[in-house]
Structures are given as structure tokens and as C-alpha cells.
Amino acid sequence: MVKNTPQQTENETTVRATAPSNIALIKYWGKSDATLNWPANDSISMTLSRARTITSATIRSNAPAENCHRLAFRTSATKSIAVRDQEKTTRFLEWLRREIKPYGSAEGALDLLTYNSFPSSCGIASSASGFAALTVAATAAWTGTKNFAELHDLGISRAHLSDWARRGSGSACRSIHGGFVQWERGHSPNTQKINPVFSVEHWPLTDLIVLIDRGAKSTSSTEGHARAFTSPLMNVRLSGLGERLKNCAQAIEGRDLERLGTIIEAESIEMHAVMMTSNPRTDYFGSATINFISWLRKSRAKGEFSAWFTLDAGPNPHVLCRPEDAAAVKATILQNFPSSSVIHDQTGSGAILESEQNFGEFIPGGFDGH
Ligand code: 2P0
Per CATH, which fold does 206-346 belong to? Predict the structure, then answer.
């Protein structure tokens, strides 16, 4: 347990933000500007519901300096460890403070306590949910707001929060919104747009996240992005992405799972082909993942189920299917891959903000383990 674990007392007002992860259907891979997180291409994602980061924030009363934030990552009901990248997070918080200032005060250092309902760094976008929750929690604590309506009254909308979260981690911008979210790169870093394009109600889908490998990945996404343009396949990929994104949006609009599934499988394999042909070569999965996806394709071809995979920057496949088929698909997966476990997730509604005195219940690994 680290010494700087935030200790929140009853008379301090603590805000709590929770933000879901999201699964990209058309991927963000490669940046035109790494400092500003300006992506090389447009992407579209589905916001999740159960795989979330929960972050509480309190203004520190006796901090030695304004940038002395205390950042702890909760690993159990009683234990916390220091956040892995304190420096990056502090830099982001100081940048965020400057953005918030025109809308209200943003004074003091923050006590931040965070946890994930899922294992980190294994292909579930923990930086997406992490930076989304951090952005909302810090903004609420600094502005003294308790909910999105109060933030709105100050002139801070979800669009602002999404744009700010993007600076922390690109994919975080999509986790602020619910449903299906499109991130348009625009013609310059300042003309990017993040739009929720279809609601949760439009098409609730199941995402079975199959944990076949829980090891942390060896190349961070930020490093992987930087390598993308060294791949000879990158420009070929970019030339076809506009058309693929249009087809993907049409498949979502028409709730056509077979069409969407065919698109997302090709898309995720293409992204990994870019990763594997980058210099240095970047492998985010091994034989366990290959066995799984070839089994999934064969089983589908035999008519056993209607489910399609996509992959993030990690080895654990996301299997998309209709909610009414989910129990059977999940049972078949667990029967064939008995040492795996499955997070049974679904389309969700974005970041939430609540005010409370205590951190709340800790849900260790709060997912459907096996
Ligand atoms: C995505 N990924 O669209 C893609 C697909 C992983 C594979 O965005 O450097 O953690 O913080 O902007 O957002 C992961 O990259 O990278 C990612 P940074 P991020 O979800």
C-alpha cells in the first residue's frame, strides 16, 4: 500500500465519475499529430457498459503545491498502488486546468482514487475509460459541480469533456458519449468532431470479451501508434478506410449484424497487419488468439452461431452478437476454451457523474468470471 493513498474524510466533498470502455469497430491507429492526438483517420466505436473505470476526486486541503496531485489505483477493498504513469497524468491534469479556467475556478491539487471493473492492459481499452473518468472527475471537482446539468449550466457540455479527454488518450473521447460514436479527424487538429451517431436504444448489441490471455501488453498503444506509418500497408489501409467506415455506419443504421460482422473482422485483421509489418514489428497477440478466431469462424460457418470478432491492441477477442444469442454463444465459448473467462458486456450510455461522501463499494474484477 502506498503512503500517498487519498484518505477522504466525511466533510470533504468527493465527486465520483464512472466511464465505460469502448470497442472500436473502425479503428484509430496512427496519428497525424501525436501531441494533439490528431488521428490519421476517422473511427467509429460502440460504448460499453460493464467494463468501466470509476474515479473519485477531492480537492486536497493541504497540498504543498497546486500540481501535487495524489493519484492512487485501487487494487482491492483496502489496497491501492501508485498510478503507473504519474507524470503523464499530472501533465494532462495541468493542461486540463487551463482549459477549465474560463468556465469557473480550477484551483488546488486533487486527490484521485481510481479502479477498473476489468483487468488492465490486456486489450480492453483501459486508457479510454481511465482518461474519460479522470476528465469528468477532475472537471467536476475543480468546478464544484455534482452532475452533468450543473456542468452544462457553466457552459461545459459532453462535447467539451470529450474533446478534453481526447488530449489524455485519443480513444477516451469516444467513452464520454453513449451508443455508437464517430470520431472525425476533420481537416486540422482543431476541427475534429466526436459525435454520438446512433443511440443505445437504436441497436443494443452484446460484446463478449473473451479473456484468453491476461498478461499486460509489451508495447503501449501510444508507442504502437507512433510505429504505424513505418508499415508499407499503412497508406493502403488509409486509402480504403473512408469507404469501410461508410459501410460500417450503414450496417449499424440497418441493424445488419452479418454485414457489420464481416466489416469488423476485416478491419481488425487489417489493423493488426499494419502492427505486424511496422518497424519494429509489433505483435499484440499470439497463438491463443489465432486458435480462437479460427475456431469462431469455423463454428460460424458450420451454422453453430451468429457471432463475429474484433480485436483491440491486445490478445483478447471481443465477440459481438445479438443479446438473445449471448447466453448460448458464451456457453459454447467457455465449453471450448475452459481456461478463459468472459466479460459479458453490451452497448452502454457513456460517462456518469455522481456526488458522494465515500468512495463506494469496491467490486474486485467486477465481471462475470468463470
Ligand atoms: C481504437 N486503439 O480505436 C484503437 C484500436 C487500440 C486499437 O485507440 O496514444 O490508448 O492514448 O491516444 O487511445 C488505443 O490507443 O492511444 C486505441 P493514445 P489509445 O480504440
Answer: Alpha-Beta Plaits (3.30.70)
Q: Summarize pLDDT for 148-166 with one digit per residue, the tens.
A: 999 999 999 999 999 999 9
Rounded-to-integer distance, Cα 51 and Cα 116, Å: 7
* Per-domain boundaries in the chain: 14-201, 206-346
pTM: 0.92
**pLDDT < 70 stretches in the chain:** 1-12, 84, 119-125, 355-370
Query: At residue 52, what are phi and psi to the nearest 5 degrees?
Result: -135, 160
- The region, left, alpha or beta by phi > 0 then psi within -120 to 50, assigned to residue 360 is left
Predicted confidence (pLDDT) per residue in 306-321, tens digit: 999 999 999 999 999 9
- Give the per-residue pLDDT at 11: 43
Q: For residue 122, what pLDDT is reported? A: 52
* Predicted pLDDT of residue 124: 65
Pocket probe for ligand 1: among 22, 26, 29, 37, the residue whose CB has the most ligand atoms within 8 Å is: 29
CA of 295 to the centre of ligand 1 (A): 27
Q: How far is CA 343 from CA 118, 174, 286, 350, 362, in A?
A: 8, 20, 20, 18, 17
Q: Do 257 and 308 meet the contact criterion of CB atoms below 8 Å apart?
A: yes
Q: How far is the CA of 130 from the centre of ligand 1 (A)?
A: 12
d(CA 59, CA 132): 19
Phi, psi of 48 (to 5 degrees): -95, 180
Nearest Cα residue to 144 out of 15, 9, 11, 17 = 15
**How far is 58 from 353, CA to CA, in rounded Å?**
14
**Separation CA 316–CA 122 (nearest Å):** 7
Class of domain 14-201: alpha beta
Matching fold, domains 14-201 and 206-346: no
Distance CA 174, CA 363 (A): 24
pLDDT value for 5? 42
Question: Is 222 a pocket residue for ligand 1 (Cβ < 6 Å)?
Answer: yes
Burial per residue of 22-36, b for 16 or more beta-carbon CB atoms within 10 angstroms, e otherwise:
bbbbbbbbbbeeeee
Residue 120 is predicted with a pLDDT of 60
